[in-house]
Amino acid sequence: MKSRLLYTDTLSAIRHATPADLPRLIELEQVCFESDRFTLKQYRQLIGRRRAEVVVYESAGKVVGSATILLNRRVGGARLYNLNVHPDFQRRGIGKALLRWTVEHAASARCDWVSLEVKVNNPVALSLYKKFGFETIQRLCRFYEDESDAFRMVLSLGDSKESRKRAKCIFENIPAGTIFPI
User: Fold this and answer.
1) Cα 154 from Cα 121, distance rounded (Å)
2) How do residues 108-123 score in pLDDT, each as one tens digit?
3) Does residue 178 form part of some domain?
4) In this structure, what are the phi and psi dihedrals at residue 89, rounded to the nearest 5 degrees?
5) What is the CATH classification number for the domain harbouring 153?
């Protein structure tokens, strides 16, 4: 069983999502994304799934952010599937805290890399990911439901140059429209 509380300070906490969080997770999807939203069914399937982690950021008892990461030990990597923060709580370090937890969790699960896709017209998210060391490796044309483009980014969790090269090579032979199997 997954531990419930993952991080806490006096007013906030990062913890595993539970079925009781489903209404708030769906609300976050609706206010944070115009398309490509997780559905109630998808969140139900992900919460408690062995290779998935859905975490929420609680501030003063209210869920104001979440992140979902999928682990694939077979290929040695993780995929950050989504990260969102309610617009009223952005620019307070919540996205940074969720991303830090995600990267640290992937490293502790012995993943060699973390990948993600992000809209090319999302400069705030792009800046955050670059600050964490993610590198853009591919542009995905018309990737999202609204036909906007995405960048595929990858972060090598190894310290060596060889580890970074290996993480980037995994994606070289994958056609641009393919969603990586994590």
Assistant:
1) 18
2) 998 999 999 999 999 9
3) no
4) -120, 10
5) 3.40.630.30
